[in-house]
């Protein structure tokens, strides 16, 4: 990697999970993880497009369901978002059967916002890099559409911008394709467009999912090989 690992040792020995080391969670998380494994097994031959991420991705299933039904259902898309997921949780899921024996055309990934509170931008970026590395090993024929972390409240604006500048370097124009949608969701770092966000200034309302779809569509269409 082009940045130094030495910058990212701050969490080691603190008792906190490390963004680049796979970790499971408690609560309802194991049940949701198992449901996604079952989804993979049940639809193994049908899965062509995957959305992978945290609650913002998971809520395509409710808040964004109308946009999903119109633009993604016919493309054999499947949602692999889990509420509250961090980079280390996604790593665990990849290692533990969620993507075994499938061959989707494209995987859309957006992750990292839940790491913002206790990790540096380089630490989060290494976590994202490790996810890419594991996905490439598991899904060698799949094109990865890596989305930048979405803008959110002012406290994290500059950190989000820094992460997106780092992970943009992971775009190799062959297997990994980076898309930063920040300009569609904010007017400046830490200044999100209110009409697109829920009251928590993190999650999206329906209009936010419409903007996501519109911003991503040209690149997604190309990666899927659609005319």
UniProtKB/TrEMBL annotation:
Q: Which residues form the signal peptide?
A: 1-17
Q: Name one GO molecular function term.
A: phosphatidylcholine lysophospholipase activity
Q: Which InterPro entries match?
A: Ester_Hydrolysis_Enzymes (IPR051532), SGNH_hydro (IPR013830), SGNH_hydro_sf (IPR036514)
Q: Which residues form the SGNH hydrolase-type esterase domain?
A: 51-211
**In this record, what's one Pfam family?**
Lipase_GDSL_2
> Mind listing the UniProt keywords for this protein, alphabetically?
Signal
Record protein name field: SGNH hydrolase-type esterase domain-containing protein
Give the species this sequence originates from.
Answer: Medioppia subpectinata
């Amino acid at each position: 990697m082009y940045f130094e690992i030495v910058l990212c040792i701050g969490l080691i020995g603190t008792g906190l999970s490390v963004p680049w080391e796979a970790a499971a969670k408690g609560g309802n998380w194991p049940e949701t993880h198992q449901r996604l494994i079952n989804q993979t097994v049940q639809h193994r031959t049908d899965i062509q497009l995957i959305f992978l991420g945290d609650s913002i991705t998971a809520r395509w299933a409710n808040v964004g369901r109308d946009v999903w039904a119109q633009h993604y259902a016919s493309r054999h898309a499947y949602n692999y978002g889990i509420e509250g997921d961090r980079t280390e949780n996604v790593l665990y899921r990849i290692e533990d059967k969620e993507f075994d024996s499938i061959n989707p055309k494209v995987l859309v990934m957006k992750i990292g916002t839940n790491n913002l509170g206790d990790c540096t931008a380089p630490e989060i970026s290494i976590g994202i890099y490790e996810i890419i590395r594991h996905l490439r090993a598991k899904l060698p024929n799949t094109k990865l559409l890596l989305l930048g972390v979405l803008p959110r409240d002012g406290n994290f604006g500059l950190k989000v911008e820094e992460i997106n500048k780092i992970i943009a370097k992971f775009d190799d124009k062959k297997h990994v394709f980076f898309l930063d949608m920040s300009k569609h969701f904010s007017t400046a770092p830490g200044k999100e467009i209110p009409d697109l966000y829920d009251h928590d200034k993190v999650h999206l309302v329906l209009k936010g999912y419409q903007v996501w779809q519109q911003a991503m569509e040209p690149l997604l269409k190309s990666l899927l090989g659609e005319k």
